[in-house]
Design brief:
MetI-like fold; 0% strand
Length: 357
Amino acid sequence: MTTDQSALPSPAPGNFAGRRARRRAMAVGGFLITLFLTFLGLLAITFFIGRVIPIDPVLAVVGDRATQAQYDAAKIAMGLDRPLYEQFFTYVVNVFSGDLGRSVSTGRAVADDLSRFFPATFEMATLGILIGVALGVPLGVTAAARQGSWLDQAIRVVGLLGYSVPAFWLGLVGLALFYARLRWVGGPGRLDIFYDGLVSPVTGMILIDSLLAGEIDIFWNAVWHIILPASVLGFFSLAYIARMTRSFMLDQLSQEFVTTARVKGVPEQVVIWRHAFNPIRVPLITVIGLSYAGLLEGSVMIETVFSWPGIGNYLTTALLNADMNAVLGSTLVIGAVFIVINKVSDVLYRVLDPRAR
């Protein structure tokens, strides 16, 4: 006896849509829970590191000439006399309420300082990674496509220089050549001194704020100043991205489906950019994300050389002054950036790779 398949009831469209909506809700809920737990772990790490390093935050506030009574009073006021678990709970509550404490170095709230300094780093690092991706990916693909040629060797030398040359030395050479001698770019700082304070901060990024204010002269002056430090950062990210792109492409170009495409007479550019390049987009996202995060947190030397008022410069000053609130706040922001970039990479995986869905 056979069963007529056409007589079986088909799933109701409403049930299918409901299950799909529940799956999406569960995925979003899992994403948010993972994000929360990761951030909570970051809070725990920053808090306990701040308690074990050999820096006395009380002494940084009261000074080394304070009496014992003044020291004890400041310790109680800062809540450092309480048990460690109570201090951690208070720290977590304060962070989620936006209170990162007060900076000893600047006398302002750390949250206010970070809102001023981080956009400058974000602006420079973003332009740097755009330069690195725009040049690094094509160079890596070209080096793989022409493996063993003089062009491949030249690109590999560029990558080696990016790994070997100290950032501060390259920044100083760039200033001496392109600013002091050729006058092609602006000097240290974000703007010429007579432009300071003329644009009201909205986003904290001078390129965007100057355009929003309609100050085209200030915009081009900001471009004139940012292009050299961003290019130096872009060079280091370019070296890493080009090297990894070349490695990924060499692996794909040796695959059978690429050989099959060539045998069928598919144009070489189509073989390279469609058949070989498409599969490496997912791992390349990881490379670009890590490089971007590295520029955001590792631009201390560049910010020092170019007198760039970013978070790296702020963190260095805080460390030298034993300003633990500023150190922990900066570390927390940098860690949060890593978390966000990783989560964005996960989302892009699902967009670019159907198997991840």
